[in-house]
Design a protein that fits this description.
- This protein is α/β, with parallel strands linked by helices and 410 residues long.
- It has one domain: Alkaline Phosphatase, subunit A, CATH 3.40.720.
- It has 12 helices and 12 strands.
- It has helices spanning 3-10, 23-31, 61-65, 98-103, 121-130, 142-150, 193-202, 208-231, 244-257, 283-302, 373-384, 389-395, and strands spanning 39-45, 55-56, 82-83, 89-90, 106-113, 158-161, 176-178, 263-268, 309-315, 335-341, 348-350, 371-372.
- The strands form 2 sheets. Strands 1, 5, 6, 7, 8, 9, 10, 11 and 12 form a 9-stranded mixed sheet that branches. Strands 2-4-3 form a 3-stranded antiparallel sheet, with no helix packed on it.
- Helix 6 (142-150) packs antiparallel against helix 12 and helix 9 runs parallel beside helix 10 (283-302).
- It is globular, with a radius of gyration of 22 Å.
- Keywords: Signal.
């Protein structure tokens, strides 16, 4: 077996990127944290979440006509939506996010998404992550291109919460991967003193593979130690919910501790609701509650740096307007993007609303897309990350924003 393949199987490296940072450098940077550093976190909902049951167009008669079993009632009714602006309402399962809306740090962009017509999960996710809809030969994702343009040659500037590097972070720049749940503390073979010492001796040279091993080894030790210290902190005596909330808080704590961690990514599955989707209660509502609670925990944990953080929640496409025969929804087109952050101009649903009448639908079945998702990303890169147009063009090549969305307060 080749040495590199052995290391990959041992869990030291990701197949597409290497985690890398020295323990001493981690500690030194923490002592000089910069709360003004700009942070961007992307939460990707894999499976195509039903945006019409996230931000509900309760003023549309057609919504209730074609969803007799899964529509969420109007405000004031049992299980009704939480009114946002007199036209749209928030799924009641997301009640933990309503304070952020009222504080003006949560916004939605409805009828938004990728202009590519595919209904394939794989292709749609690929296009949303590479930032070039319709193109399959792209070798990197838009977040990796962003990292390349803001990098200070600090390999831990971007953290992926997950076991494998996603397409959005795939590319030439190194990315640190943080396992989900409790797996960060699971010992690897190299964590055994005798094995670790043997590997340290074997890869103590200056060649590329040895350098990669050394960086990966130090990164694991640094992150594991940092997380172990943070996990000892009291949380007002109450344990966090399992799953996303724990991972969201963990990523937020790392960002608070080290200002060099500027980009974060978490993918969540389970949004492909073809069967028994439910309305105010049920499968989708249960998952949305965990998502909303986790986002609220993330915002709270970010504390003072929430002011300089933007959190984007996106999915590859929406669902059909009409429910299917299994009380679920099928692959659609237009969706809703969420944006949270201390300087987000929230309390507003952005984007032109095309309507849900049959003649207004995409292919007479789906919510039409009135806002390209890249317009949202462009706005965040320009006004939040404060990048020049030339850099944005490198992150999102061959695209010029068609709408100027004023998402960020100056």
């Amino acid at each position: 077996m080749q040495r590199r393949n052995f290391l990959l199987q041992a869990g030291m490296f990701s197949a597409s990127a290497l985690v890398a940072v020295g323990t001493n450098a981690w500690v030194a940077r923490s002592a000089n944290n910069n709360s003004n550093a700009k942070r961007l976190i992307v939460i990707f909902l894999r499976g195509g979440v039903d945006g019409l049951n996230v931000v509900v167009p309760y003023s549309e008669t057609a919504y209730y006509q074609v969803r007799p079993n899964i529509a969420i009632p109007q405000p004031g009714k049992q299980g009704g939506v939480l009114d946002l602006d007199g036209r749209f309402g928030l799924n009641p399962a997301l009640s933990s996010l309503k304070p952020l809306w009222e504080q003006g740090s949560l916004a939605f962009i409805h009828a938004c998404g990728s202009p590519d017509p595919t209904r394939s999960h794989f292709d749609a996710q690929y296009y949303m992550e590479n930032g070039i809809p319709g193109t399959k030969n792209t070798k990197d994702g838009w977040m990796n291109r962003l990292l390349a343009n803001i990098s200070n040659k600090e390999p831990i500037q971007a953290i992926n919460v997950g076991e494998t590097i996603p397409r959005i972070l795939y590319g030439k720049m190194s990315v640190a991967s943080l396992p989900t749940g409790k797996r960060i503390n699971n010992p690897l073979s190299v964590d055994r003193p005798q094995v670790g010492a043997a590997f340290d001796k074997l890869y103590d040279g200056n060649d590329t593979l040895s350098q990669s091993y050394q960086e990966g080894r130090m990164a694991r030790q640094a992150i594991a130690k940092d997380l172990a210290d943070e996990m000892k902190m009291a949380n007002n005596g109450a344990p966090l919910p399992d799953g996303f909330a724990r991972d969201a808080q963990r990523l937020a704590r790392l960002m608070v501790k080290d200002s060099k961690v500027e980009l974060g990514f978490i993918a969540l599955g389970g949004w492909d609701t073809h069967i028994n989707q439910g309305g105010s209660q049920g499968q989708l509502a249960q998952r949305l509650k965990k998502l909303g609670d986790g986002l609220a925990v993330m915002a709270q944990t970010l504390g003072p740096i929430y002011q300089n953080t933007a959190i984007v929640v996106m999915s590859e496409f929406g669902r059909t307007v009409k429910e299917n025969g299994n009380r679920g929804t099928d692959h659609g087109h237009g969706n809703v993007i969420w944006v949270l952050g201390g300087k987000v101009r929230g309390g507003k649903v952005y984007g032109e609303w095309p309507g849900l009448a049959t003649e207004q639908l995409y292919q007479k079945r789906d919510l039409a897309i009135a806002t390209d998702f890249r317009d949202v990303i462009s706005a965040l890169l320009k006004d939040h990350m404060q990048l020049p147009s030339s850099t944005i063009n490198q992150v999102l090549p061959s695209y010029t924003a068609t709408q100027k969305i004023a998402l960020i307060n100056s």
